[in-house]
Amino acid sequence: MKIIVDCLGGDNSPAAEVEGAVLALKNNKDLRIVLVGDEEKIREILTRRRVRTPRIEIVHAPEEVTGNDKPIDAVRLKKNSSMIRAIRMLREDESVDAMVSNGATGVLVAAATLRIGRIEGVRRPAFCPMVPNMAGGPVGVCDSGANVDVTPEMLQQFAIMGTHYMETFRGIKNPKVGLLNIGKEEEKGDDLRREAYKLLEKTPGINFCGNMEAREFLNGEFDLVVADGFSGNVLCKCAEGTALEVLKRLKRDINSKKKYQLGGLLMKKMFQEEKEFMNYLNYGGCALLGMEKVIVKGHGSSDRIATKVSIEQACMLLKGGMNEKIRDSIALCDQES
Amino acid sequence: MKIIVDCLGGDNSPAAEVEGAVLALKNNKDLRIVLVGDEEKIREILTRRRVRTPRIEIVHAPEEVTGNDKPIDAVRLKKNSSMIRAIRMLREDESVDAMVSNGATGVLVAAATLRIGRIEGVRRPAFCPMVPNMAGGPVGVCDSGANVDVTPEMLQQFAIMGTHYMETFRGIKNPKVGLLNIGKEEEKGDDLRREAYKLLEKTPGINFCGNMEAREFLNGEFDLVVADGFSGNVLCKCAEGTALEVLKRLKRDINSKKKYQLGGLLMKKMFQEEKEFMNYLNYGGCALLGMEKVIVKGHGSSDRIATKVSIEQACMLLKGGMNEKIRDSIALCDQES
Does chain A have fewer CB atoms within 10 Å around its N or its C terminus? Predict the structure, then answer.
């Protein structure tokens, strides 16, 4: 396996990516990594860590793509940026199987869409982040921002792709799929949801469990939520923000009284574990599903551990043959409809 | 002031509505209430509570509208249901100023839309629930489910109506308005959001503060969120569900170890206060803004206190002249564009 790692664009670049790659190489003996970025800085980190291995290759592309770049312009004009260069290698170099980047999401989606082919039959790629649900497991959301305008058929494909993703990455057999909607009953929502509901009911190979209201998101009833990119994005970010704000508020409460401080002291480990449990960085990056090559977008704030997790996530998706499974299921679905 | 209270359709009907009305009458000497529902049951509760006042009127309409009714069908066919009867009185009886119902949301919106006129110039009515933000204040979301398909002009009107609502109901001067979007920058999101952003920037009388990402919803930075009904609904329900699930999870943690149990004991009051703070029932019902008469939809699970709050909320909106202010601002906005 050969994976490209974009070493620019994250909050902790390039240290997070270079050190994350080194950690991933230690765990995965059949892995090779191409680090794309500022060669001098990358070498400096490797030297400091005394890493010398033929399994690391470096490609010099020191320009950075940022969240302020207009996606299409960046793809066309920033050809020497690490991200666009990495995408080009992903397309042109057949020995390269996957790519990991902590850089600008919008540019990555645009570059992948314009330069990397989609899996045969796939209408649109979709982002599928993983969120900790409060019952202790993960729940995926597909799509969460790659597409704002979608059709019922796209939502159906998001369900198929997300199902294979949850099975391959998290080992969840027959994941329970919910359609994000504003009510439980079949006829709730707009035409898009009503038509998608009908399609999802008869889609082979997925375990469709009906509409999901946003208040059920984290209760453990669903393993995968199917949504348009706008409301899927709202769902993920709202859950993340609310959990964080509630914990922050409790912390403030605890500090307000001696008695609570004492209680907080007794529960210190518990709160630390909860904070860790709710830390999105521990749940891997966000896979861009539906592309011919595996692409994982890490959080911008990823550190070396989070980057290692994202790289290993790409390994798992490759080893598990996720893309081949998606291709077969999409073909089967098209045949039956 | 004369307010109609629908005494069927809630989880605790008719006790919650009848007893809530009695409590509201005690606090508001200039208030009169019409209770619509099963007359015998209503009289039974009043007798049991020893309430005898000329300020209560009863209208017998014992049929119930439920969440399973198709909205349009219910409006046409269930004419003797308490909700549809109440809506008819609201339209026909000029002495009636407002209505409160804990019944089925979809039917209420359909009935109001079909039977009650909109404030001049208003394109669509919108729901605006109030959610506790973690900084200690409320934040409103307009719309949160009355409209799934919206235009930029509708979002602009939601901002205007929501602004007057937050000012009248919660006394927040010049509330900070955010547009729910998937990124902070002006150009983020779909065409709807980009055009709405431009309109909101130049809308007189509102304090537009730019795009709001869902993760900022509860941090206290915004007083009012403008959204299409679908994503607004997702936002509210996700925040509600997440806060609840986090507290539930902590409770489970606390019960898992003796040491944590002891800590929990010390913090018992704190957790109780937080649970109360996050209890949506304390934040009043959800106003349906933009109609010629004031309509407040209480939570289905409302008890007598929550129903009292909803009735008093209707009083405040009447006394504060919210609808007149909305009419003037919409006219001003139409003039300037």
Answer: C
